[in-house]
Amino acid sequence: MRKKISAAIIGLGIAGVSLLGTGSAGSHGYTDSPTSRQEFCANGTVQDCGDIQWEPQSVEGPKGFPSHGPSDGTICAGGNSRFAQLDDPRGGQWPATPVTAGQSFTFRWRLTARHATTDFSYYLTKPGYDPTRPLTRSDLEDQPFLTVPYGGRIPDATVTHQGTIPDGRTGKQLILAVWTIADTGNAFYACSDVQF
């Protein structure tokens, strides 16, 4: 009997440690349309990505973008140094999704864990953006071109939003997608390189 109780206590202890180890990351997600940098790393298209290749869903950082959130130069990694490879512009050579100014586009998130949501927002870089430099706030338009409010609802595991790609861009640009969580201090970030 004593062995069974001890085994049960040990089992509960291991389960508790496992829950604590994952508790800080109760929600996870990334974009795969347009394809995000973390998705390119996870599917092996881009090499030398570090930990993000196993955790494309884990680019979590402080919410409140653009007034708060990750600092300039660390936006694509959500301010998380473990995923700093996402902030490396790689000489402007990240693969890019072809887009056309003014086209209707379906933006898609893959959520590996769902959570109460404030909104999803999408920002586009300004004309003159230099894809060979780390992303800063001054590279992005001040306002998102698409915001989808959720009012604290929990989204499905696959989330799609229909929007229009803004006009006035040519060449290589970047779309920053931000999933803001309602009941934590965090948001999830995904940078997708696009080619006009």
Would you spell out the secondary-structure blueprint of this structure?
Elements: H1 2-23, E1 28-33, H2 37-42, E2 60-62, E3 97-98, E4 104-113, E5 117-124, E6 146-149, E7 158-164, E8 172-181, E9 186-195
Parallel strand pairs: 3-9
Antiparallel strand pairs: 1-4, 2-9, 4-7, 5-6, 5-8, 8-9
Domain Chitin-binding type-4: 28-194
GO molecular function: monooxygenase activity
Organism: Streptomyces blastmyceticus
**What is the N-to-C succession of helices and strands?**
HEHEEEEEEEE
Largest sheet: 6 strands, mixed
Question: Might you state the CATH topology name?
Answer: Coagulation Factor XIII, Chain A, domain 1
Strands, total number = 9
Helix content: 10-25%
Question: How would you explain this protein's 3D organization?
Answer:
With 196 residues, the chain is of the alpha+beta class. It has helices spanning 2-23, 37-42, and strands at 28-33, 60-62, 97-98, 104-113, 117-124, 146-149, 158-164, 172-181, 186-195. The chain has a single domain (27-195), classed as Distorted Sandwich (Coagulation Factor XIII, Chain A, domain 1), CATH 2.70.50.50. Helix content is 14%, strand content 31%. The protein is globular and about 35 Å long. The chain starts with a helix and ends with a strand. Residues 54-93 are annotated as: Disordered.
Question: Which properties best describe this structure?
Answer:
Ig_E-set, 3-stranded antiparallel β-sheet, Lytic polysaccharide monooxygenase, 196 residues, signal, disordered N terminus, 2 helices, monooxygenase activity, oxidoreductase, alpha+beta, Coagulation Factor XIII, Chain A, domain 1, 9 strands
